[in-house]
Design a protein that fits this description.
The chain is α/β, with parallel strands linked by helices and about 325 residues long. The protein has helices at about 10-20, 25-35, 35-50, 60-75, 90-105, 120-130, 155-165, 180-190, 190-200, 220-225, 230-235, 270-275, 290-295, 305-315, and strands spanning about 80-85, 115, 140, 170, 205-215, 240-245, 245-250, 275-280, 300-305. A hairpin with a 2-residue loop joins strand 6 and strand 7 (about 245-250). Helix 2 (about 25-35) packs across helix 3 (about 35-50), helix 4 crosses helix 14 and helix 5 crosses helix 6.
Length: about 325
């Protein structure tokens, strides 16, 4: 067999199948397609670099699989991934980010619209998405911007970064996550470009959202300066265990109409529920309550978390 163009995508796929599926050596492949062994080696390297071949190490333990199955059955979810716990929270977030990125890559297809929120776990997901030159998917921001204090976790920046990796367009919400008053929020929501953005959110094929804690030491809103200690304490007194896309909920998944609710510019929870697949990601045992609230409220269809959080979720009613 003679192939004139060794850079063709179909040739790379054929070579990858011979090597990874059929088990042929690079020398054997070279003889079959009448190219040099170094040419075959370069094509295999290109396959990995371009995303035609994706190598994953499945390090989910049998304990993690058991936890995932129990949560899936208990809350009737589409899918649950429980990664092994690490030595600290940052490492747990990184593992959850890697697992969520792999899952997103597995369900993405051309022409999709992906909704994205914000937070450190979402940041870990975005940075682990591998660019794919053969894919074009758009990304839409589900919450307003959070400002320069949290550049690495700002929704605007992450939307741009992710859309670049996916080769698609980015739909940026040109408004802050929180404003000074309900009056200002209502005025901004009447702006044509913001109004059309919220309509576009409803077309999302799936969404990836963080599950934020109401505890100030874990709250992205507190770290970003959007709320202070007094706000945090009041939110907790009002029954909130955490937030999804800036919207606070209680342990049963009910929307908590806090003093901050009317100042938020973010997707309403009822609209989030209408997105066909919502992926919720969170790490750490202290996130068990917000995960339980999100599951009881039916806000997420897929959960990606770590073993400590998963155990906390399953044991929550035992406390």
């Amino acid at each position: 067999m003679h192939i004139d163009d060794p850079d063709r995508r179909d040739l790379k796929i054929m070579v990858a199948k011979m090597y990874y599926i059929e088990g042929l050596s690079q020398e054997e492949i070279a003889k079959k397609i009448h190219l040099s062994r170094p040419s075959v080696s370069r094509m295999l390297t290109a396959c990995v670099k371009e995303g035609l071949v994706q190598i994953r190490i499945d390090d989910v333990s049998s304990f993690g699989r058991e936890l995932a199955q129990k949560i899936k059955e208990k809350y009737n979810l589409n899918h649950v991934i429980v990664v092994p716990q690490s030595h600290n929270l940052d490492a747990d977030k990184e593992k959850v980010g890697q697992a969520a990125a792999a899952y997103i890559e597995s369900i993405l297809s051309n022409g999709m619209l992906l909704g994205i929120s914000w937070g450190t776990t979402i940041f870990n997901i975005v940075k682990n998405i591998k660019p794919n030159i053969y894919l074009k998917a758009d990304v839409i921001q589900l919450v307003g911007g959070t400002g320069n204090k949290t550049n690495d976790t700002d929704a605007n920046m992450m939307t741009l970064t992710l859309s670049k990796a996916l080769g698609g367009d980015s739909y940026i919400l040109q408004a802050p996550l929180m404003v000074q008053s309900k009056v200002l929020r209502d005025l901004l929501m009447e702006e044509p470009h913001i109004k059309s953005h919220f309509e576009k959110m409803k077309s999302a094929d799936f969404a990836i959202v963080g599950l934020g804690s109401a505890r100030p030491e874990l709250s992205a809103q507190f770290r970003s300066g959007h709320i202070n200690m007094e706000d945090s304490e009041r939110i907790i007194r009002e029954g909130a265990v955490g937030d999804i896309c800036g919207r606070y909920i209680d342990i049963d998944g009910n929307h908590c109409h806090t003093s901050l609710s009317d100042r938020m510019i973010a997707i309403p929870l009822d609209d989030l529920k209408k997105i066909p697949t919502v992926i919720g990601a969170a790490a750490g045992e202290k996130k068990a309550d917000i995960i339980v609230g999100a599951l009881r409220g039916g806000y997420i269809d897929v959960l990606i978390t770590d073993e400590k959080a998963a155990v906390g979720v399953l044991n929550y009613n035992c406390r």
